[in-house]
Amino acid sequence: MIRQEQPTDYETIYEVIKTAFETAAVKDGDEQDYVSHLRKSSKYIPELALVAEKDGHIVGHIMLTKMVINGKEQTFDALLLSPLCVAYAYRNRGIGGKLIEKSFKLAREKGYSSVFLCGNPEYYSHFGFKETCAFGIINESNVPQKYIMACELFPGALKGKEGKIHIV
Question: Which domain of life is it from (predicted)?
Answer without folding.
Answer: Bacteria
